[in-house]
Amino acid sequence: MPLINTSLPNLIQGVSQQPDAVRYDGQCEEQENALSSVVDGLQKRPATEFIHNDTTGLDPLIDGTVPANTLFHVYRRTAGEKYIITHDGSNLRIFNADSGQLCTLTENTTTDFTISNNALATSGTYLDASSPSTQIKPLTVGDTTFLVNSTQTVQKTSQTSTAVSNDTLIFIKQGDYTKKYGVIFDGTELNIQSRPTSSSNNSYAAANENSSTDTKPHMADSNLILHALRVKLNNATTYTDKFDAATVHANLMVCNRKTAFASTDYTALGIDGLAGEGIGVVHKEVSSLTDLPLIAPHNFKVKIKGDAELAQDDYYVKFELADGNTDGNVGEGSWVECSGGGVLNQIDETTMPRLLVNTALNTFEIKRMNTNELNAGDLESNPDPSFVTNKINNIFQFKNRIGFLSNDSVSISQSGFGLNGKYNFYRTAVVTLLDSDPIDVAVVSNRVTNLRSAQPFQENLILFSDNTQFVMKGGDLLTPKSVSVTAVTNFDSETSVDPIAVGSYLYFPFTRGNHLGLREFTVNATSDVYDSNEVTSHVPQYIETPLASVSGSNTEQMIVVASDDIYVYKFFFSNNQKGLSSWSKFTVQGDVRGVQFLESDLYILCVKNGKTNLLKIPLETGRVDASGFNTHLDMRVSRTVSANTNTIQLPYEPESTDTLEVYTHDGLKLDATYSGSVVTLTETPTVNTPVYVGLAYTMKYVFSKQLFKAASGNSKSPSNASNLLIRNGSVFFNNSSAFRVKVKPDERTENINEFAPVVIGTQGVDELKLTDGAFRFPILTKANTCTITLENPYALPSNLQSAEFESFVHSRSNRYG
Fold it and tell me: Are strands 114-116 and 660-664 parallel, antiparallel or unpaired?
């Protein structure tokens, strides 16, 4: 029976739920509170630090418990200024992420919310939500955080644009005193004839107060013709019954409808002896912009008719005086495009997202999202954005635009969003489609599509529905002319959380029965082919529902998926090849409500002992405390025990089932008891002593079954022709203080083997020893009938690199080939 040696080159490949026979070396049965690192090996995860502002008493983030569906949004403004937004279904609050301080919150208006003690009551307001974590969609851009309620329907106000003017403008395009000029009002013709032979009835001359009846006016004297026509109109009962006296301003006569008839429609047509080229009449609409006079009353509005068969090419213009005069004045100016007459032209801002604006350190203001009015065309030529009368499912930023998802449509604001404090979703002109104009497109699919999320990805925008992924492309400059949307893949996705971008990949969860999976979405830069690979294929029933949140860190190449526990996916790419794809689990003190990365720091919102706490795990590779090593205590706080005193005030109250421990910064464990939030040391220090106080937690790693594998070509596979009896094992480590190995044979007593350079709790100050080497432990049982577990329940570090096993093997035959 020969003695052989088998090795595991590393212990960082994480959990696998595949049969032991097909697992890779280094994959395990269970990994808990252990962090896989290509640099440091398998190490105890860093402690959770309790974030608090007060050092004199209890200091939870929220005095009370928040439900599992609480919104938890973290963002970084600067390196020293980070904020957390929570919405628990009743109140919205903002905290400083480093100190836990509740930020000052005020309202820009006085009609939307009630704010008391900087907590904003959401009941009965736009932000009212029964499940804020899934219904409220946050997006932070600079100092502004948009909050979208996906259950609210966007409406329009009753405000309408100014109607087209019901007055009439008359001007002379070509003057000829020998020709006929006139206007037909509602079928009644009022005109001035060509110059008669008898001067006694010369209406042209009569209109010219400065000339005799014998004087012929100049052929181009349009003002004289208008004066003559004015006299005719002002003397006609059919005109004066419904119009004020006509007035002439240079080459323009204004016919104002009387107030009593202001809303009564009528027709006004020009007639002349020049085949329609002599007189111009403007009433409500004209065929072309060239049919308008060069002078007009300020704000006079008229419709320009395009193709008679198409309503989409109609547009509206109003006259603006060049000298900035106001309504009622007439003069030179220009015709500018405007909105149509009587159009509902304003989105109701009370049904639009709210904005949290950071105005100073720890100071915020909440206000409505102001949107531009419809300022050009009407709802035929410039229709409402798709989200109007619908619900906004989500919000995104893409290429200097803000976008909304609604049903199967994507609505993107005008480029340079937020100009002058307003966001524009209408075209600025209907005559010309500008590159900066808003974009509104619908996706095309043979499935019922409800877009749930959008993520910028490698210069494009990836749109996610329940079971289809689309790509929106627009080239280097996203414009209404260049945009296109194409379906690229068909993968199911969990829509309660947004996909996350980590490095050059997008990751999104999906539901598999009572468990969750995670996909890695990417594009081949050469072929422009999109694809998705499942990174949970070897742990299909590992991540349990319900899903709370998903977050990732580019810096640490790590993704966390939070449900009741925190599931950790650690990966490592080298030369575009994935060298590490490891799943494990973190358990923390309390019930997790949400997690989110800010660079290398993982922030955790959790509930414990009737309080809501904010914790932080610094996951920076190689990070250690000032003492040169990490002290592993959850909900850890740092305190200094004054000389000749022996009590420590905690900012939280441990539960009776917690194991509370106190360590000096140098690694010495101090005996202590606790009552409520007060910790009492057994021995009173004689000097000021910096200590860490927190709750003990255990690192755990369960080996896969160590089966005998015989050579099979270029690889190895299990052999049923051999029996394997493990004699002993060895664990290689570095910079470690203590750990233990448990060996549990089936139907036999568990054997515990402790490694400690010194007896835990007996070393003196400055005597903590971190060592390198190998720890050998006995097993003496069959390989397939025992469970081998590595544990570190201590607050001191352990870094485990690899393992090997000495075994007796008995072969009935040898494998060939």
Answer: unpaired
DSSP characters over 307-361 = -TT-STT-EEEEEEETT---TT-EEEEEEEEEBPTT-B--B-GGGSPEEEEEEET
Cβ contact 47:694 at 8 Å: yes
Give the type of residue at 556: E
List Cβ neighbours of 19 (8 Å cut-off, separation of 6 or more): none
- Residue 196 pLDDT grade (very low, low, confident, very high; cuts 50, 70, 90): very low
CB 70 within 8 Å of CB 592: no
718/23 Cα distance (integer angstroms) = 11
Say whether 97 sits in a helix, a strand or coil. coil
Kindly state the percentage of the chain with pLDDT values over 70: 92
Compute CA distances 36 → 10, 593, 616, whole Å.
10, 24, 19
Q: How far apart are CA 673 and CA 646, in angstroms?
A: 11
Question: Please, what CATH class does the domain formed by 3-11+701-811 belong to?
Answer: mainly beta
Q: What's the token pair of residue 393?
A: 């499912």
The model's pTM is 0.89
- Going by C-alpha positions, the residue among 314, 325, 300, 255 that lies closest to residue 162 is 300
Q: How many CB atoms lie within 10 A of CB 674?
A: 18
**Could you write out the DSSP letters of every residue in 206-232?**
HH-TTS-TTPPPPTT-HHHHHHHHHHH
With a cut of 50, say whether residue 215 has pLDDT above it. Answer: no
* pLDDT tens-place string over residues 295-325: 999 999 999 987 766 666 789 999 999 876 6
The CA distance from 523 to 418, in Å, is 32
Phi-psi region of 89 (alpha: psi -120 to 50; beta: other; left: phi over 0): left
Quote the tokens at residue 313: 């090419």
pLDDT bin (cut points 50, 70, 90) of residue 56 is confident
* Bridge partners for 711 per DSSP: 716
Alpha-carbon distance of 442 to 421, in angstroms, equals 27
For 237: left if phi > 0, alpha if psi spans -120 to 50, otherwise beta; the answer is alpha
Task: Give Cα separations from 676 to 96, 175, 609, 669, 713 (angstroms).
Answer: 27, 100, 11, 21, 64
Domain range list for the chain:
3-11+701-811, 69-154+354-369, 168-338, 633-695
> Could you tell me if 739 and 790 are in contact, meaning their C-beta atoms sit under 8 angstroms apart?
yes
User: How far is residue 672's CA from residue 500's CA, in Å, rounded to a whole number?
Assistant: 44
Burial environment of residue 610 by CB neighbours within 10 A (0 to 12, 13 to 18, 19 or more): exposed
In a 3-state reduction of DSSP, which class is residue 204? helix
User: Which DSSP category does 35 fall into?
Assistant: E
Distance CA 578, CA 520 (A): 12
pLDDT for residue 682: 96
Question: How many other β-carbons are positioned within 10 Å of the β-carbon of residue 482?
Answer: 13
Q: Tokens for 536, please give them.
A: 């949970």
Is pLDDT at 164 greater than 70 in this prediction? yes
